[in-house]
Structures are given as structure tokens and as C-alpha cells.
Amino acid sequence: MRIEVVSLFPELVEQVVRHGMPRIAVETGQLELNPRNPRDFSTNRWRRVDERPYGGGPGMVMEPQPIAAAVEAARVAAPAAPVALLSPQGHRFDQAWAERLAQQDGLVLVCGRYEGLDERFVREEVDFELSLGDFVLSGGELAAMVVIDAIARLLPGVLGHAESAANDSFSAGLLDHPHYTRPEGWRGQRVPEVLMSGDHARIARWRLKQALGQTWLKRPDLLDGVRLDEVKMALLREFISEQRVDEER
Ligand code: 9WO
């Protein structure tokens, strides 16, 4: 997959492929990340990319010409790629969005700075807007890096992809089960016995029960989005009844 990032801070966005799954995705040729700086496309003799807002007010607005030219160059490098703007007005980015975008051959991510972008640019060049949540950042770059990380770990061929991405309980619409490592006892708390039993079927059953239970406890809204078959319903009931026992202790 080829991801083109339009940003006034390309060196910031490039940091995302220095570590972790995005780095592996680049090293294995599954991901190509190409930043494009609107400043390089400015036809202004001072390479200016921002101007004062019509109507007045504080701050500056990104001029349409340089950022549109950068997006047009990105479109040539990644034909048919959708153009997404990172903004609080966008669709809420989630795992389903990550999975959908990971199936594309290309993607153009546009990062704004200053007080915002000229609205005519958004109408002309942007296919959809993506939001990480209801908060304001100083620019779209950190949000673009989050989107790139979420996509990179889903790309086929990225190390461990087959097991870990499919195993993510988020791919089943659930939170993760708890994890434990050595030592067996720490600050008076023991690792659950089942995890040391070597009984893989029992372990898988315990993990699914915990994933269902943790989702019920911490994010009950997510359970509205998943169809619980009889096995899962039974596991969740079992988790809930064990909760009550824990509370009474
Ligand atoms: C800022 C803003 C504030 C209140 C209501 C709507 C708003 N839109 C923007 C906006 O698009 N700002 C541009 C991009 C320019 C300034 C910094 N930008 C930005 C992107 N701030 N916050 C984001 C963002 C992106 C994705 N998810 C959450 C926030």
C-alpha cells in the first residue's frame, strides 16, 4: 500500500515508520510512505502557504493553491487513492475504518495547520474527513500518524499478521483479554491458574470469557455492535456471576 501524506511537517509524519509495525511494513515492502510538503508547491516567491482569514479573526488560514498542488502530485503517485483530511469534523476513525483503508492500494492523508484550511480546497480535493475524537490538535499530523499505525499492522505480510491481527479481539468488536507474564506472583497477586495449565482449549475459553466480560464492564456500548451466539452469552453470564462473587468477598 502506498500512503501519501500532505503536510507542512513531513519530518514529523515520517517518525511513524521509525518503530513498530509501520517500520516492519516498510521494511517488508508492504507499505510505502511518501510525504509531500505544500511549501514545495507554493507558486509564491516566498514559498508562503498561509494568509489572513477573510472576515477577520485571529491566526492564519492555509491557502488553497499550495495544498491543492501537493494533493494533485500525490494523486499522480497514487492513482485512484481516496483523499482523506484529518479533522474534528470527520467520520470517527475506528478499527472498521482501519480495516477498510488497509484494503486500498493507496491513500492520501491531508494534514492541516494553523486555524484551518480554505473551505474551497476541502470541497475540491477531499473525499472524506476522518476524526480521532472530539478534541482539537495543533495540526493533523499526529492524527495521520495514528491512522498510519492502525493500517500498517493490518497489511497482509506484515510479520505476525496472520495470528495477531485476526486474534485482536477488536476485530471481533470486543476489548482485549487481560495479559500476564512472569513472575507467577507479584505484589501478592497470582497469575490465573488456567493460564499455566497448558490446556489450550481452556485458555482460549477463559480469554474469550474475559474479553466479553471486560467489554461488558468497561465498554458496554461495544456489545450493542456484536452478535452474541449462545456460547458467548453463556460465557458472559458466567463472567457476570463470578463478578458478584468477587464483589462479595
Ligand atoms: C479545528 C476545529 C476546531 C473546532 C471545530 C472544528 C475544527 N476543525 C478544525 C480543523 O480542521 N483544524 C485544522 C486541522 C487546522 C488546525 C489543526 N487541525 C486539526 C486536526 N486539529 N485537530 C485535528 C484533529 C484531527 C483528527 N482528529 C482529531 C482532531
What's the quick description here?
The protein has 10 helices and 10 strands.
Describe the structure in your own words:
This protein is an alpha/beta fold. It folds into two domains: 2-152, SPOUT methyltransferase, trefoil knot domain (Alpha/beta knot, 3-Layer(aba) Sandwich); 185-248, tRNA(m1g37)methyltransferase, domain 2 (Trp Operon Repressor, Chain A). Helix content is 41%, strand content 16%. It is built from ten helices and ten strands. It has helices spanning 10-13, 20-27, 64-77, 95-102, 119-125, 141-152, 161-167, 200-218, 220-223, 230-248; strands at 2-6, 32-36, 50-51, 61-62, 83-92, 106-110, 116-117, 128-131, 185-186, 189-190. A hairpin with a 2-residue loop joins strand 9 (185-186) and strand 10. Ligand 9WO binds next to strand 5.
Main features:
249 residues; alpha/beta; Alpha/beta knot; Trp Operon Repressor, Chain A; 2 domains; 5-stranded parallel sheet; elongated; binds ligand 9WO
Briefly, what CATH class of the largest domain? Alpha Beta
The CATH topology assignment of the largest domain is Alpha/beta knot
CATH superfamily of the largest domain: SPOUT methyltransferase, trefoil knot domain
- What would you call the structural class? alpha/beta
Shape: elongated
Question: Quick check: average pLDDT?
Answer: 95
Please count the helical segments. 10
